[in-house]
Amino acid sequence: MKAKGWAHSFPVSGGVHAGRRWTRRQLESFPWTADEPETVDAVVLAVSELLTNAHIHAHSDAHLILTWDGDCLHVSVHDEDPTLPRQRSPQAGETSGRGVGIVRMLADTLDMRCQRHGKTVSACFRPARAGRPDAG
């Protein structure tokens, strides 16, 4: 199977909501998503957290790439700040600081890379149904 993917940029203003909707629409093209709504929800939540981090901490538009390689759905978000996010342990009542931990719990793998013009944070989601021949 050839890889299948999409890319879209989301502005700081309104980008998180639009990113969730866009991601859910793209995922509808895979047959496995009907049988794995929890995986779809996990991907959408991770996209929400990664876009929020790009907007709030990097003060940057976010460039989202979704790539399906037949085994893993790769979710990558690039922003213009080269500072890598770090997992925090927020105190009770704090309204932020959980994004990296949430994505780390939801995804099968999480990778962060500095680049010449910013950074890319990538998460891999391996649906249980992905190994089946009809998984798309």
UniProtKB/TrEMBL annotation:
It comes from the Bacteria. Keywords: ATP-binding, Kinase, Nucleotide-binding, Serine/threonine-protein kinase, Transferase. Pfam families: HATPase_c_2 (PF13581). Residues 36-124 form the Histidine kinase/HSP90-like ATPase domain. GO terms for molecular function: ATP binding. Signal peptide: none annotated. Coiled coil: none annotated. SUPFAM superfamilies: ATPase domain of HSP90 chaperone/DNA topoisomerase II/histidine kinase. Residues 80-99 are annotated as: Disordered. Transmembrane segments: none annotated. This is ATP-binding protein.
